[in-house]
Amino acid sequence: MTDAAPWLVVGLGNPGPEYARHRHNVGFMVVDLLAQRAGLRFGKHRRVVADVAEGRLRVGGPRLVLVKPLTFMNLSGGPVAGLAQFYKVPREQIIAVHDELDIPWTQLRLKQGGGEGGHNGLRSMSSSLGGKDYLRVRFGIGRPPGRQNPADFVLSDFSSVERKELDFFVDRTADAVEMIIDQGLEAAQNRYHAD
Hints:
Layout: E1 7-11, H1 26-38, E2 43-44, E3 50-56, E4 63-69, H2 77-87, E5 94-100, E6 108-112, H3 120-129, E7 135-140, H4 150-154, H5 160-183, H6 185-192
Parallel strand pairs: 1-4, 1-5, 5-7
Antiparallel strand pairs: 2-3, 3-4, 6-7
């Protein structure tokens, strides 16, 4: 890891108000909260199709670039790779925050590398970055009820019961991202995988 390069924290989601509260957009929700905590504002990047917010987690803290790709989910990798090149960020300092069907609701899992589990945003990132060894913060949304198509499930709003817990879970996920940056993946896994 290089101290000169910032951390690139990528929230995966779909642009546009009609997608804003969908399960597939939890990545956007988490980076929005991180920006709010750090007093940063998003703006369109001049070279890449993404909204970015640049700054530090706190005074004297590590440099940070928060990213919301403005392509649709399955094309997220292009903007992420463009920003990684622009800011000279190694893959080990890229964190993708995304929804995860294979993890139960309210659970959080953190890892580096591995497969994409059918997640088109991750597949696009791995392809565009030329590797899978970036970090992932996996926000559990659980499996769809009954026979609902998983694609329809991720592109739907949270249930009324889930919405009661959503803000707390988004807050906890933002805490996990900060802990990875401050203390490393292993420390964050020990803290958040215990729950």
